[in-house]
Amino acid sequence: MTDGKAFLRGLDLKARTFAPAARATVEANDELCSWLLDPLARWAQAAYGDRAFEDAAKGYAHYCMGVWKSQQQYEKIGRYTPEAMQELVSEVYEQEGYMVPYMWAAILIYPFWPSMINHIALYRDEFLKALPPDARLLELASGHGVMGLLAAETRPDIQVTGFDISPPAVAVSNRLRGVSGNEHRVTFEVRNALKLNLGESRGTYQGIIAAMLAEHLEDPRPLFEVIAHHLADDGFVFFSTALESAQRDHTFEFHHESEPLKMAEEVGLRVTRLVCDSGSPLPGGRFLPRALGMILRRR
Ligand SMILES: C[S@@+](CC[C@H](N)C(=O)[O-])C[C@H]1O[C@@H](n2cnc3c(N)ncnc32)[C@H](O)[C@@H]1O
User: Fold this and answer.
1) Residue 240 CA, closest ligand 1 atom number
2) Ligand 1: residue whose CA is nearest its atom 4
3) Which residue's alpha carbon is at the smallest distance from atom 10 of ligand 1?
4) Which of the four CATH numbers 3.40.50.150, 3.10.20.30, 2.40.320.10, 3.30.200.20 does domain 114-298 have?
5) Among the four residues 13, 75, 118, 152, which has the most C-beta atoms within 10 Å?
6) Span 5-56, pLDDT tens digits
């Protein structure tokens, strides 16, 4: 039966330069990484066949090169230099040729990048396991859908509703969902997370995921308002974002861990856990790329 190691074999074949570091991270965190990669490999194989692993490797390599180039440019210019949002939507989020490889990379960085490993632990052990029985879960920027699908796999009592602005990303998530065995408890639809109707009833969701979305927005404050509006009194939020980490579609530049934390507090949420680990800075660089994850609750 296919297991998560198939993704590492894909790297050996199609992205050899990136294989040793990814393998070292997976081997050092075997149990956590298998929790994510084993079901993902099953779904990927069933949805896309054997080519999934080589396609994923190519997507991952292309993404890592893009990140490296963007970070070099960031060091030179001293700030993010994003395209206009309208252009990002038409050139990135609506482009299947761009989004599908990107979505493989977006999920593979969790088990392959040391800075993301703590996010898997935080998500599984302090978010999913803490959700009240029969929780309704809202995923904002569901992308590839794997976070929501892992939620359904881990918690057979919960329902997941995911939204993403990108039609090709939603197509990927629905393809994985269709073979996941949990299709009756999970939905993914194309919707802008910032345009969810705040007139809809408040406090409907006991769990909200907003993973690696805030840095893609021109202003993340409205995202915190959406989260605060939809969160039930006994609910938990899994929030994550990138700091000083340039990418083609990163538009909002966080420098300090206190910035997203304050934005959460401003809408009446409290931070009950925070993890933040750095990636590799460029030698002599002035910026330190980091990935921050938080659990939020109502005050
Ligand atoms: C880096 S991916 C993160 C995917 C997934 N949440 C994860 O943690 O791997 C960023 C995602 O945000 C989505 N996105 C960007 N702006 C959005 C918006 N306003 N509403 C919903 N989704 C958005 C993109 O389409 C993309 O799928």
Assistant:
1) 8
2) 143
3) 213
4) 3.40.50.150
5) 152
6) 999 999 999 999 999 999 999 999 999 999 999 999 999 999 999 999 999 9
